[in-house]
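Bumping my old thread because nobody answered last time. Still need a sequence for this structure:
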């Protein structure tokens, strides 16, 4: 609604002629009520939810059929059929009709309260841009904390798990969530305009851009030509995809727009580590020529040394009170280990101890065959170490500083309280950091006892 009856009246009040855009706006909105203008959002949201993800549907179908775009898909193993994507759209539309639309209809008083204007003059480009920046920053910060709350036990089980049904999100899944989540996440979106209210057009633009941003973020594709890559600290599709990929247990990448909240509050550590690792692992080659025997051996030595050193410290940490009670206790159920018990552990331990195994190949990537060999040897080594048998003809006894079955068996024998023999492969870490003292005393004592027994035994047959 514009409080002037004619264009002449309006330009008289402004003290200047109307711009072309202002004339257009006058012609369009002069006779329309503010409520009616506000409700345009319903149409905009419907169009955006329906049309913006549509190109992604064609991209996904083309990819499934021919492998095109495969290299831009963030989780290329996941394929969505047309009916999968249509089901998502149908669910989102249901939510739109039942929740988003009615919310728009009844939230008008709040728009009146914060005094969003709809008249003339139109806002300058600078005003629009400044307000949009503020809205995005406020949205991002507030959304971060609401989203973190959703990842509490209660919030996740009752509400947020629905949004996480997609471990590999698609464009249509951006607003796919529990109705309570849709309502609650309306707050961060509305907070910016409440703090810095502007023109109705800015408000429309904000709602539209925020939804388009969410669709891009959930697209599942990381296109190199995406313009948002130019925005500083912008998260984007690959960033939020990781949050869905990790799933319900995810304590990483909560932010909806930018990356700085996760950085400041330390909730992007896992993501940054994995990204670096993957980037370096990308150096693993699979073609010809095959690696020389020298290269394979050199790399395996490096892998074993890195594994041993990193594993030592993680294992030591797993023996702190918290780490032991929550995680490592499971592996120590065997006080006298057997071969099959070597990977017997809490799932978190299995994940965590994947790091030392992948770190070597990430630092010194080689041929895929070397990688296979490494994974196999590492597992065989762990099985030997947990075998429970100290066979005298074991060839690994020829490897210098090699721990072996008897060495790690002692760690299990002492059990949870054990502060001894943490190393997984070699003995030198425990020696340097002084965590083999108990073991060495124990071994010496056993030897003395054995020698004494031998002497006594010898005398017996005198
Ligand atoms: Zn989440
Ligand atoms: Zn999401
Ligand atoms: Zn242990």
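Sorry it took so long. Here it is:
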């Amino acid at each position: 609604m514009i409080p002037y009856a004619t264009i002449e009246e309006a330009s008289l009040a402004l003290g200047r002629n109307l711009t072309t855009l202002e004339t257009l706006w006058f012609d369009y909105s002069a006779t329309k009520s503010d409520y009616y203008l506000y409700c345009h959002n319903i149409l905009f949201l419907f169009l955006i939810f329906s049309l913006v993800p549509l190109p992604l549907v064609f991209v996904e179908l083309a990819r499934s059929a021919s492998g095109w775009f495969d290299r831009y898909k963030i989780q290329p193993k996941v394929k969505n059929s047309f009916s999968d994507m249509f089901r998502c759209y149908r669910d989102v539309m249901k939510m739109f009709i039942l929740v988003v639309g009615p919310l728009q209809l009844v939230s008008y008083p709040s728009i009146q309260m914060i005094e969003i204007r709809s008249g003339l003059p139109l806002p300058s480009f600078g005003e629009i841009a400044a307000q949009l920046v503020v809205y995005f920053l406020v949205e991002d910060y507030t959304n971060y904390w609401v989203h973190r709350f959703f990842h509490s036990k209660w919030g996740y089980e009752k509400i947020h798990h629905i949004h996480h049904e997609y471990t590999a999100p698609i464009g249509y899944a951006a607003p796919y969530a529990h109705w309570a989540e849709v309502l609650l996440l309306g707050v961060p979106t509305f907070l910016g305009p409440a703090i810095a209210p502007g023109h109705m057009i800015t408000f429309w633009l904000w709602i539209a851009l925020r939804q388009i941003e969410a669709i891009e973020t959930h697209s599942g594709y990381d296109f190199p030509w995406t313009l948002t890559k130019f925005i500083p600290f912008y998260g984007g599709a690959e960033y939020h995809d990781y949050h869905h990929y990790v799933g319900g247990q995810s304590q990483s990448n909560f932010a909806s727009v930018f990356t700085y909240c996760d950085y400041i509050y330390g909730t992007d550590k896992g993501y940054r580590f994995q990204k670096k690792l993957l980037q370096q692992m990308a150096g693993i080659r699979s073609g010809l020529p095959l690696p020389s025997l020298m290269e394979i051996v050199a790399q395996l030595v490096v892998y074993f040394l890195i594994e041993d050193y990193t594993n030592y410290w993680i294992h030591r940490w797993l023996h702190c009170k918290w780490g032991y009670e929550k995680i490592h206790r499971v592996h120590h159920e065997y006080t006298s280990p057997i071969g099959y018990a070597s990977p017997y552990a809490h799932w978190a331990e299995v994940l965590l101890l994947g790091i030392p195994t992948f770190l070597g190949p990430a630092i010194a990537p080689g041929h895929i065959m070397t990688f296979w060999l490494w994974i196999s040897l590492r597992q065989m080594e762990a099985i030997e170490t947990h075998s429970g048998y100290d066979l005298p003809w074991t060839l690994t006894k020829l490897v210098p500083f090699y721990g072996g079955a008897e060495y790690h068996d002692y760690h299990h024998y002492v059990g949870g309280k054990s502060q001894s023999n943490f190393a997984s492969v070699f003995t030198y870490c425990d020696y340097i950091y002084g965590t083999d003292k108990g073991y060495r005393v124990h071994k010496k004592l056993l030897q003395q006892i054995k020698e004494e027994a031998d002497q006594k035994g010898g005398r017996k047959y005198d």
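The pocket of zinc ion (ligand 2) is lined by residues 163, 169, 218, 240, 244 (CB under 6 Å). Let me know if any region looks off to you.
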